[in-house]
């Protein structure tokens, strides 16, 4: 694969091709240092889940320490090659003073350097862990952090695991009804804190085993009631993506082995 999905994953793995010198020689203005720091940042956030909306990527960057998001430019016609760009400001050490002014500050404040990043549906364009798709740009006068619009995608309830566990632990040993279980769990769920719609609760009954799932690739919650009791089902983030096992009760009942 040309890119690895990070988990919150992702991660989240850092080597900048062609930038081994870092912020040393050839980086008098700090541009290379800024791109290096941003590549590091992109790998430590959940900014590589599959999406056709660059605002989804932007939402993963808000509120994190490090580079600050100052620009969002969605593509007019999102495609496999580009869904838009995000612009970040990175604060780097000011170039050393080499003049003769004795009153000059020997330890100047950090200076802003701005970098534009292009994304496709799978994450940053180009090779993961490199500065492919990153372009140093002139910083605007206003460096205020911008907030992407709220997502309209359904989200798992903040208390989803507790609600599912409560209902599954109270089930009789047999005669479980999938629709009734889903209704009981849904009645216990709290609304998502960010105002997004509540994700559907999916239930599958297989003999005496019951699988439950809610949410999507980025916030999936899955539990299973089996012979050993009720347990949380852990699946790697990449296996929750479109085209893989996914976040559903069948995955909860029969989770895939970890990827190699």
UniProtKB/TrEMBL annotation:
Keywords: Signal. It comes from the Bacteria. Residues 239-260 are annotated as: Disordered. The keyword Signal applies. Residues 1-25 form the signal peptide. This is Lipoprotein.
